[in-house]
Specification:
It is a single chain. This protein is an alpha/beta fold. The protein has one domain: Aldolase class I (TIM Barrel, Alpha-Beta Barrel). 32% of the residues lie in helices and 19% in strands. It is built from eight helices and eight strands. Strands 1-8-7-6-5-4-3-2 form an eight-stranded parallel β-sheet. The termini are close together. The protein binds D-xylitol-5-phosphate (DX5) and zinc ion.
Length: 215
């Protein structure tokens, strides 16, 4: 059964601890790190990641939407997160970066923008624990799922046996089953879980129900 990884991007940051506690049913915590260069938005850094990693029982992953991730890997690894995901488009030395992530004791993931072909990871398949297929252009929560990425998810599953396929952007109860049927093992969900006035645990339960119902 697919795992659900809430992204806290649309959570209430003034009450982040409460938000994390209320989102019962999360399998993994997905932390979106944005640097204002690779994407036109800024979020938070390793101090916040460390606080979250200490507060939750589930594994934490950092989705690094940053240029030159190699310069920052150690700080996020020290924050106590399980997995570091770098963008293939953000470094000239993807193979070296993945080796660095493993050396730091973390699992290594690579994210691909919607416009980046799967061939960008074909030569580093042996170093990959996870592939993150972006189903929106990264930078903001609450965007619409790009249907064009469904075929890419299916091809990724065939190309990378043994590598977890995670999908990120525009996923909620209405399309979760479709994304899993295409080949996703992990679904990131931001605004479908954290929205003003919503109960995040209920939102996660609804998504899980949608996964079961049509299977
Ligand atoms: C987009 C981020 C996603 C995003 C998901 O740049 O990587 O993790 O916050 O949010 P939703 O589910 O609202 O698209
Ligand atoms: Zn993300």
């Amino acid at each position: 059964m697919a795992l659900i990884a809430p992204s806290i991007l649309t959570a209430d940051f003034l009450r982040l601890g409460d938000e994390l506690r209320r989102a019962k049913g999360a399998d993994i915590w997905h932390l979106d790190i944005m640097d204002g260069h690779f994407v036109p938005n800024l979020t938070f850094g390793p101090l916040v990641c460390a606080a979250i990693a200490q507060a939750v029982a589930e594994p934490v992953e950092c989705h690094l939407m940053v240029e030159r991730p190699e310069d920052l890997l150690a700080r996020y690894a020290e924050a106590g997160v399980r997995r570091l995901i770098v963008h293939a488009e953000a470094t000239a030395h993807l193979h070296r970066v993945l080796a660095q992530v493993h050396h730091l004791g973390c699992e290594a993931g690579v994210a691909l923008n919607p416009g980046t072909p799967l061939s960008a990871v074909a030569e580093v398949a042996d170093e990959l624990d996870l592939l993150l297929v972006m189903s929106v252009d990264p930078g903001f929560g609450g965007q619409s799922f790009l249907q064009s990425q469904l075929d890419k998810i299916a091809r990724a599953k065939r190309l990378l046996p043994g590598v977890a396929i995670e999908v990120d952007g525009g996923i909620g109860p209405k399309n979760a089953r479709q994304v899993v049927d295409a080949g996703a093992d992990i679904l990131v969900a931001g605004s479908a879980v954290f929205a003003p006035g919503a109960d995040p645990a209920l939102r996660i339960a609804e998504m899980r129900k949608a996964l079961h119902e049509t299977s």
